[in-house]
Amino acid sequence: MTDDVLWLREERPRPSRRATPLTLERIISAAVAALDSDGAERLTMRRLAERLEVTSTALYWHVSTKEDLLALALDHIVGEVPVPAPQASPRAGIRALLLGWRAAMLAHPWSPALLGRPLLGPHVLARTEYLQAALLRSGLDGADLAAARQTLVSFVLGASMADATWRRLGDPDVIAKVRAHILGSAERYPALSTSGFTDARWSDDDLFDTGLNHLLDQLIPAP
Hints:
Elements: H1 24-38, H2 45-52, H3 56-62, H4 66-78, H5 90-107, H6 122-137, H7 142-169, H8 172-183, H9 190-194, H10 204-219
């Protein structure tokens, strides 16, 4: 149902500024700060109201549910992604956009886990608009255009989720145990144990950059 999707609902009247000093922008900024410090699991409307030093009732005037709040926060951090200049070459612009998109999501480690919701906020759509326009300028259309856009968006979102998961592990001892587990099961995982799966020579940044280059080589027609 469209009522379940924040971005597809009709706007309801908001209280006047004289009724409350609270604004939606202030709420979203506070929510992002709370998510950065405590994660999505600990965020509640009551705790956010306390952080803002307002009543829960005042908060609910602006945001109906925690789900809406998470959708707003996720779109907000995508707003941190610089939109490349329109005159950039399609390939250079797409590279810059997707590198910035991943960097923004990894700077807010809670965000990749929230990707299972419609990405229809204004900041997401503005960047998707840029991506679509750049692919059009590269000469793609029809199914090739749709497939290229979906492939690139899936790549940046999927890589962000995977990289954030591994970065949350963080502890070198845990990473060492993962490698030892793979290497200790070489008969079960012969390819993984012998072809670099446990190799730490390449950072996730290096691997994303290389993978993105390979994708762009395949998806964007040569000039």
